[in-house]
Design brief:
CATH architecture: 3-Layer(aba) Sandwich
Helix content: 10-25%
Oligomer: single chain
CATH topology: Dihydrofolate Reductase, subunit A
Largest sheet: 8 strands, mixed
Structural class: alpha/beta
Distance between the termini: 20 Å
Bound molecules: NADP nicotinamide-adenine-dinucleotide phosphate
CATH class: Alpha Beta
Shape: globular
Strand content: 25-35%
Number of strands: 10
């Protein structure tokens, strides 16, 4: 059964990027790619992904020659100037009401073919899925750093139940189920 999972790295004080979208606090850290709760194992269970426009622009700017994901991807934006990476299955659209997000989610679940839907980020987008009752899990890899300000992890009140945790390299990784009303 498809689960909709927000999986991200975060600072200890709950930011997923600096205010100017830097991930320098993250990219230099040591992690065992084959270790517990590693990302490769997570991605094997993913059949569709969704991200906001800032995240998409970060990926395009930092990896201009390639697109790392083979599964269908949705990029949410109101902008008209975003282009899909050539050859990649990327659908650029807006879904700014709970009804539109629910319809989009139905499409993503169908495309995922029984695998999970990964909400890549940002935090408010994950919050929109939570608001609509569509978010099942939150998985965080917590880096040993605080940055004081930036793009928030999940700017909502969401009740969670811890289901798994592990130490991997410099990170503490935690999986939570979302408590639904
Ligand atoms: N630490 C990590 O592992 C990790 C993971 C993911 C992301 N990140 C980073 O975190 C930062 C996140 O940036 P962010 O907080 O700005 O979030 P974002 O979700 O990447 O981008 C937000 C923008 O997406 C568009 N959007 C969001 N929801 C929408 C909807 N329902 N319908 C239509 N458009 C929608 C809006 O912009 P427009 O309409 O103007 O396009 C919105 O301002 C980025 O720097 C990213 O690289 C880090």
């Amino acid at each position: 059964m498809t689960r909709t999972v927000y999986n991200t790295a975060t600072t200890l004080d709950g930011f997923i990027a600096t205010s100017d979208h830097s991930l320098d606090w993250l990219l230099s850290r040591q992690i065992d790619q084959n270790g517990p709760m590693n990302h490769a194992d997570f991605e094997k269970r993913v059949g569709a992904i969704v991200m906001g426009s800032s995240t998409y622009r970060w990926v395009r700017e930092h990896e201009p020659e390639s697109w790392a994901y083979s599964m269908p991807a949705w990029v949410l934006t109101h902008r008209q100037d975003l282009e899909p990476h050539p050859g990649a299955d990327i659908r650029i659209t807006a879904a700014d009401t709970p009804e539109a997000l629910t319809a989009l989610h139905t499409e993503m679940v169908a495309a995922a073919g029984g695998r999970d839907v990964w909400v890549v980020g940002g935090g408010d987008l994950a919050g929109q899925f939570a608001d609509a009752g569509l978010l099942d899990e939150v998985v965080v890899s917590i880096a040993p750093v605080t940055i004081g300000a930036g793009a928030p992890l999940l700017p909502r009140h969401v009740e969670l139940v811890r289901t798994e945790w592990a130490v991997n390299g410099e990170f503490v990784c935690v999986r939570y189920d979302v408590v639904k009303a």
